Amino acid sequence: MNYMTHTIEPWMPVGATKPKDDIAKIARRQGWKTIEIERATQETVADNLTPHLTPSDLVVHQFPSYLPLEFEENFRNAVQQTGAKFIILIHDFEPLRLSERQNSEREYNLLKRSDGLVVHTAEMAEALAIPIPTFVLGLFDYLTDAKIPDRKLTQDLIFAGTLTKAIWLKNFTLPIKVFGNLPRKWSSDELAPTLKLQDVLPQDTAPAELPNGIGLVWDTDSSENTHYYAYQQLNSPHKLSLYLAAELPVILPSFSPFAPFITSHKLGTTLDTLTQLPLTFDYDPALGKKVGQALRSGGNTITLLQKIEMFYL
User: Could you tell me which residues are beta bridge partners of residue 136?
Assistant: First the structure.
């Protein structure tokens, strides 16, 4: 039997759990079972999650659960002690995003002692350099049953996501609609008058509710200890999947792993710095619709799960 973990954390902000929720839902549709991890009540010992496992099983663990690292280690050990395979599916790996991470060595060892690894991109696999079977997800899927409106191409800029990684918004002079919560340390008085802060959209219908425009993908560091800017060379931004699922053109960093895909398929363009905005580019709405439909139906995750099954079973 194949199992996918799903961390239950109902207090999280709107949209924060969408990537994990979608992967768990797609896995269930493919006949996988779910191991639910109740973050509010789960202790660091993990034997309660594994008594049903057998040596013929495999467990894909959506990491991090944001429980203590001791739990992650105990869970891996508990799974492997049953003889089942333990594969880590990385959503984010903090040692790549943060400086002076006290537990970095333990986190790397957690990966090394697993039976397999799922990463965002080949670039992330190379940066981690973990010598175990490694699978690449690519773009995160974005499940929704909401009907996407017929899009009209406009030059309006849109940004959706965590504003703490978007300090640049404070000094951005072009008109932009921002869908996100204002960080506690930010004051609305600091924001440029061209920034129009919008309510956070419901995660399951956001692709249909985003207005016409161009989705912007750009992170900057919030302190000297963060590497959000550099992390864009490795990761698969969920906001990119949101924009593409919404059938909107996108602008992303020229050093993103997805830059060649976006430009070659005429789904948007890239830039080196925000000072290059505004930009003009060709967009193929027919291909945008095709890519959006694939992401909304879970195609990338289904392919990933099939590859894992073929490799281990």
Answer: 119
